[in-house]
Amino acid sequence: MSDRRESLPSIPARPSGTPQASPARHPVVLSVIDLDKRFGDQIILSSVSLEIVAGERVALLGESGSGKSTLLNLVAGLEPADRGTIEVAGQRVDGRDADASARLRRERLGFVFQAFHLLPQLDALANVMVPLLLLGTPYREARERAAMQLASLGMSARAGSLPATLSGGEQQRVAIARALVHRPALLLADEPTGNLDEENAQRVLALLDAACHEHGAALLMATHSTQAAASASRVLRLAHAGLHSA
Question: Which domains are seen in the chain, by residue range?
């Protein structure tokens, strides 16, 4: 079930280049400074700065096309920025080659893609095992941890199912299990509750919250859902290519 898109009040602009930072004195997991991104003549992001600390959950609001997904892709090193710096857990993201970016994602990031990106030839359990196996986790341990993560999302009965046989909501839960299973320092989530009913959306939000509180992860979540935004410790809004407090 798709989440409902609520109209939100306009947010007063914050001076560009000023990091959107939490006052808490925890280790900084994500640091973004003066980030710019264009597609042709269109300015998508301009002088965006952001800081997220361990345990913090940040919801990112904005209209479709405002640059939310682009910002997540830049942070993950999936697209190059035109200007600015990005650090995840003290490691620079910008300027890395493809292999170094992939290694950083494996070790430090968990990404819940809006399109899921499950491997079609692998069942749900094997999809969740992939991040652990890439990190060298022994097969038996990876299998046990993946099974436990699927169980936490109510997906044990579908562990042996291929993605093509799963509903959109089930695929989303598998994708979320895959993002959480290796306990990343930074979780990036693009509409993580968009295909879920209210009960499963609440379950997912609780798991994201637990990952932050229990394991010290930081969360940056792009969403249109007021339910998801209400679960965050801080809410920001992308508008007019800039980032503002909500």
Answer: 28-245 (3.40.50.300)
